[in-house]
Amino acid sequence: MFNALIINKDEQGYRCELQQLSAEQLPPENVLVQVAYSTLNYKDGLAITGKGPVVRKFPLVPGIDLAGTVIESAHPDYQAGDKVLLNGWGVGENYWGGLAQFARLNGDWLIPLPDAFSARDAMAIGTAGYTAMLCIMALEKQGLTPEKGEVLVTGANGGVGTFAIALLAAKGYLVVAATGRPELADSLKALGASAIIDRSELSQPGKPLAKERWAAVVDSVGSHTLANACAATKADGAVAACGLAQGMDFPATVAPFILRGVSLLGINSVTRPKAERIAAWQQLAQWLPRTMFDHNTREIGLREAIATASDLLAGKVQGRVLVDVNR
């Protein structure tokens, strides 16, 4: 028997509870993983509380990230003892996820844990750091180099934002961070931001074209912020869009794209091919400063995750939440 969070929706309503399960209750996938760490992301908060239509099948174990050790495998790429990690693939939404001591998963969703990282390290990075790396890789594939000029990071105090700042700075880029919390400017500069702007400069309706400033943008905000970021991107620059904290709308015109040749790159971290995932984690191993493993990171046990999910949605939790599923 092992501990897991279980979400149910029935005549008693929607609820998430800590329960004991047996291995026989796990889904019939081809790799059994003993989970060491998971995380608590915003999407997990929505799933656990039921405040967003995240979970599509019941009962379900939430948790979109996990890292651990293979116990049994019928997949050709893995054998008992292998260290693995997982981000996305609908785990924690359509498939049982990582907020449990064991998970049975499709081996196609897993990648080997890089030698540079422990399971705890990998989950301190989680989907947030992995998505930030995908954004930077997409921008560099589009031709971005440090010599091109300033790179804007919106939502700078969020998970993707903080990792994007640290990674870009480590690679030698001049980073400008947009934040609605100016009192945290010093911490953003400590991560590597060379300048800070208030998010209000971007979050209101703007002009179809603004003065060219950004060589590239990492945006996790969407809506007017994304539109204004595109409007001020230099000719032949690129914008990587990976989030919608301000909204799903995109109140923009085609002017930046057809008059300046700006590229808008959509970043979907959930279903990236295995080779691209491995490349992103290899880049993280190469470039991510070790200080990021404990920067603004809080560790909790599995039984604390339900209450913490509510706090997360209420804006009472800052930074990354690591979940040690074995305590």
Keywords:
about 325 residues, alpha/beta, 7-stranded mixed beta sheet, 6-stranded parallel beta sheet, 9 helices, globular
Number of strands: 15
Q: Helix/strand/pairing class, anyone?
A: alpha/beta
Query: Mind summarizing the main beta sheet?
Result: 7 strands, mixed
What pattern of helices and strands is seen along the backbone? EEEHEEEEHEHEHEHEHEHEHEHE
Poorly predicted residue ranges: none
CA-atom Rg in angstroms: 20 Å
User: Mean of the pLDDT scores?
Assistant: 95
The tally of helices reads: 9
Q: What portion of residues is helical?
A: 25-40%
What is the molecular shape? Answer: globular
Distance between the termini: 15 Å
What percent of residues are in strands?
25-35%
Structure in a nutshell:
With 327 residues, the chain is α/β, with parallel strands linked by helices. The chain is built from nine helices and 15 strands. α1 crosses α9, α2 packs across α3 and α2 crosses α8.
Describe this structure in words.
This protein is α/β, with parallel strands linked by helices and 327 residues long. 28% of the residues lie in helices and 27% in strands. It is built from 9 helices and 15 strands. The protein has helices spanning 42-49, 119-141, 159-170, 185-191, 200-203, 223-231, 255-259, 274-287, 305-313, and strands at 2-10, 13-21, 31-39, 65-73, 83-87, 102-105, 111-112, 151-153, 175-179, 195-198, 214-219, 233-241, 263-266, 297-301, 320-324. Strands 3, 4, 5, 6, 7, 14 and 15 form a 7-stranded mixed β-sheet that branches. It has a 6-stranded parallel β-sheet with strand order 10-9-8-11-12-13, sandwiched between helices. A two-stranded antiparallel ribbon has the order 1-2. Helix 1 (42-49) packs across helix 9 and helix 2 (119-141) packs across helix 3. The longest helix is centred in the middle third of the chain and has 23 residues, at 119-141. The mean pLDDT is 95.
